Amino acid sequence: MIARVIDSHVHFPLSDLQSVMGKRKVHPWVESERTKWRKAWQFPEPQIIGDIDEIIEKWYEETFKHDLSKVVFVTANGNENMLKIVRTHPDKFVGYAHHDPSKPDAADELEKYLKAGLSGYKILGPKVSVPLNDRKLYPVWEVAQSYNIPVLIHFGIMGGAGGIANHVNISPLIIHDVAKEFPRINFIIPHFGCGYVFETLNLCWACPNVFIDTSGSNQWIRWMPYELSLEKLFRKYYETIGPERIIFGTDSSWFPRGFSKSYFDEQYKAMVYIGMSDDEIDRVLYKNIYELLEERVI
């Protein structure tokens, strides 16, 4: 590896991987799109590994193989699993809580696991039936603000081909008022907004506590109604919010792929080509997420 790196967006692959990676019977077009995606990135077929301890050790080995300072796991199929993961290798692993914020006990659950050692909160917007700006969710935001944690919220299309494209929480602008009312919560919008570039840029412009992450293959670029590229995404966010609010991630998960170095390589190249300095690239790859997590774990 050529720089300090914290991968801020990794999914611990202890879940219904058969569904995620297309092992269940799906529409032929959906299957062809998934096959095309794996072929384009030269990814192998995923393995189904049910032993949490085996996966923990595989990911621990990845941190040394790719010289990763830390890996931030954002989901692990349950908060108890996440606690086990981060407690096994606290020198390398950081974990976020992940549960539905509309659950009656969501705020209490978040506080419980933050006290136990988790360091952030991950939400899948299009999986939450209640609008994220509903005041019923404010107890969750109050806990997040009091513990000074980052809150990572997926917006935009979700699930790859055949996934979700329309939902009350599809646009990141749904949290505009929340971000204004809870200015000490650092919200992170992954995948450059995942198709909602205009909305995410506007949200970032209006709310200085909103960051973006760069994670994933960002294949949604291919079906935008205007020409877009990874370089253009980096340039537009760099021009709008500067390097201080751009955070590197890969969206890595399953094996034998492990850490998606091909995503890293593409992103690093894009940052160099738009003229970012070494110090600015270091901010994106390491320093920004380091500073957000510093009070919690680092």
UniProtKB/TrEMBL annotation:
InterPro entries: ACMSD, Amidohydro-rel, Metal_Hydrolase. SUPFAM superfamilies: Metallo-dependent hydrolases. Keywords: Hydrolase, Lyase. Residues 6-293 form the Amidohydrolase-related domain. The keyword Hydrolase applies. One of its GO terms (molecular function) is hydrolase activity. One of its GO terms (cellular component) is cytoplasm. Pfam families: Amidohydro_2. It comes from the Bacteria. One of its GO terms (biological process) is secondary metabolic process. The keyword Lyase applies. This is Amidohydrolase. It comes from Kosmotoga pacifica.
